[in-house]
Every structure is written in structure tokens, then in C-alpha cells.
Amino acid sequence: MAGAPSPENRPIAPHLSVWRWHVTMATSIIHRATGVGLYGAAIGLAIWLMAAAAGPESYVIVDTILSAWYGQVALYLIVAALAYHLANGIRHLVFDTGAGLTPADADTSAWFAIFFAVAAPIGMWALLTFGA
After folding, report:
1. pTM
2. What stretches in the chain show pLDDT beneath 70?
3. What are the structural domains of the chain?
């Protein structure tokens, strides 16, 4: 190509070691990870529904797993992933309108999505435990 820079003069693509980590980078990665995790949660939901439909003998196995501490941790993480994915998806819808794109606004909305992911399962637990 005429006028193309020689290979030694071409700009180098930014690498993770060049960039300073910030919350919006983390939220992008977490959004992808929670999306993948929610696929696993959907499979777990299908297994739970099949066990419920199969009868009490099958359901007691799934109930035992979900009642154990590791089942409770898994349920917390599923609700947290769902809450985070929802909040970050809404955040990106707002970005699509052109609002909230300044670095300060993007950082604030990113922290809100993370806070919502932590608080939503706790609020869900309180609602289910103590009623409305």
C-alpha cells in the first residue's frame, strides 16, 4: 500500500499490562462471566423442575443439595449473577441513549451494578424469610 507505515512504525495494540485496571473494565468482564454462569443456572433450573415433576423420590435428592450450605451459596451466586446481569444490561441500555458516558458517570453506574448484585440476594432472602 502506498503511504502505509512500515511494520516497525505501526502502533502497537494496547495490552492488559499497559492499561490501568478500573471498575468499568471489571464490569465488562463480570458481565460476560455472569452471562455464562446464568446458562449453568438455567440447566440447574431445568434439573430442579424435572426432579419436581418426577416425584418425591427424585425431588428429595435435589432438595438435599439445595438445602446444604453449598446449595445455599450456589443459590446466592445465581441470584447475584442475575441481579448483576440485569443491572449492567440496563446500564448499557442507558449508554445506548448517549447518557452516562462520561468516565465519572460510567464509574458510578458500574459501582451501582456491583452493589446491586451484592444487595439483591440479601434483600430477596429477607423478603422470603420475613415476608412482606
Report:
1. 0.82
2. 1-7, 10-17, 132
3. 23-130 (1.20.1300.10)
